[in-house]
Design a protein that fits this description.
heterodimer; A: 124 residues; alpha+beta; three-stranded antiparallel sheet; 29% helix; B: 268 residues; 11 helices; 69% helix
């Protein structure tokens, strides 16, 4: 392209549509990068802090919730749920920092309130 | 002396097409969801910086708009910024991000997914040759188009079908999102083939063949993509019955399949 044409093109006024998508795009970039930098400075650095709770849903079904309040994601999380003699293990691929994961556990014989505890996990 | 044309919606749609085709395989990858929430925000920011440099270079030589590479920085900003929106929309559609998640994790996952999406955006103009692929003139007609659609669908979703992700997504995505996935598959296919002004759009819209009517062709191509997705899932053993769960798996996989089908038709 000749330099004259390039110069002419650069002088061309932008249309309203070009301004609109430019502003939206710039706002997206600013938000994303700004947010990442903010969280980069404030991100937790501690190990995973996992807690498992179990809530009855009726008919032998229970919702198992694993919450990670730590500063690092936990991977390959294994939770043991016990109801009397009946023991079940539930595995989660990962529980991200500040996030929670849920699973449904079923005990065919309605017994006492089950208990849940985290058995193992890996740090990435 | 002529001044290059201004950016219009079809140009942006060409970038969206490129972004979807390159970005979708990563949207369907568990490790991307995981690492987006796991990596330190500074690491992701650094990756974004490198990615923006690549976008700038691609916008200088290819871009999402034919004949316009004079403003690479402006085009890189547009492609990069809109890719965040595109990636976030796809991730929300598949319930990989939602309002109950921590904002830090959402930003990480969207940013991580937006990297290939933005590179696809900047390559949008090179997605399909203006005059179709070599030898494509021998595949003209409705049957040729549907054959190309099937081939494109196979290419794009063959690396997704054998993985756990379609099953996982189908299990976790609710009925409203499944309907939205179908609507998105049809809408994006239509826009890519009939609105984004790739090569061959003029002959397509001028054709008197019933199969080439935009709505009919879009629906037929989706049917082909859906069938390819279902058959691939059966072939790899992910579907062994024909219940609602199997239908949901096919719908989830039909999204990338329909994008492949659209790309295949663009090459004919």
């Amino acid at each position: 392209m000749s330099s004259a044409k390039k110069k002419t093109d650069l002088k061309r006024k932008r249309t309203a549509f070009e301004w609109a998508i430019g502003i939206v795009a710039a706002a997206c970039i600013t938000t994303m990068v700004g947010g990442l930098v903010y969280y980069g400075f404030t991100a937790g650095t501690g190990p995973p802090d996992l807690a498992a709770t179990i809530t009855p849903e009726g008919e032998g079904k229970y919702t198992l919730t694993v919450t990670n309040k730590g500063g690092t994601t936990a991977e390959d999380v294994v939770v043991e749920v016990t109801s009397g003699e009946d023991v079940q293990e539930v595995q989660f691929l990962a529980v991200a920092k500040g996030h929670k994961e849920e699973a449904t556990v079923i005990f065919e014989e309605a017994g006492q309130q089950p208990e849940a505890k985290v058995l193992t996990f890996k740090e990435p | 002396m002529t001044v290059s044309k201004a950016t219009k919606l079809p140009d942006v749609m060409r970038g969206v097409a490129g972004g979807v085709i390159l970005g979708l395989p990563l949207v369907y990858t568990q490790e991307v969801w995981l690492h987006g929430a796991t990596l330190h925000p500074f690491v992701i920011t650094l990756m974004l910086l490198v990615s923006f440099g690549l976008n700038f270079s691609l916008s200088k030589y290819v871009g999402f708009e034919p004949g316009r590479t004079q403003r690479p920085l402006e085009d890189a900003v547009v492609g990069f910024g809109l890719s965040f929106l595109l990636a976030a929309t796809l991730l929300f559609l598949l319930d990989r991000i939602n309002f109950s998640m921590q904002l830090e994790n959402v930003l990480g996952i969207v940013a991580f997914t937006a990297i290939p999406t933005s590179l696809g955006f900047s390559l949008g103009n090179a997605l399909a040759p203006q005059e179709g692929g070599t030898g494509s003139q021998e595949m003209k007609g409705g049957a040729g188009d549907l054959l190309a659609a099937a081939a494109g669908a196979v290419v794009l979703c063959l690396n997704i079908a054998p993985t756990e992700e379609p099953v996982l997504l189908a299990y976790q995505v609710d009925i409203v999102r499944l309907v939205l996935i179908i609507v998105t598959s049809l809408t994006l296919s239509y826009l890519m083939v009939f609105y984004a002004e790739f090569g061959g759009v003029a002959s397509r819209t001028q054709s008197e063949s019933m199969v080439h009517h935009p709505i009919v062709e879009t629906l037929l191509a989706y049917l082909v993509a859906f069938s390819v997705a279902g058959l691939l899932l059966v072939a790899v053993g992910e579907i062994d019955n024909f219940g609602g769960a199997s239908l949901a798996e096919a719908v989830v996989l039909a999204l990338p399949a329909s994008m492949g089908a659209a790309l295949g038709r663009l090459l004919v």
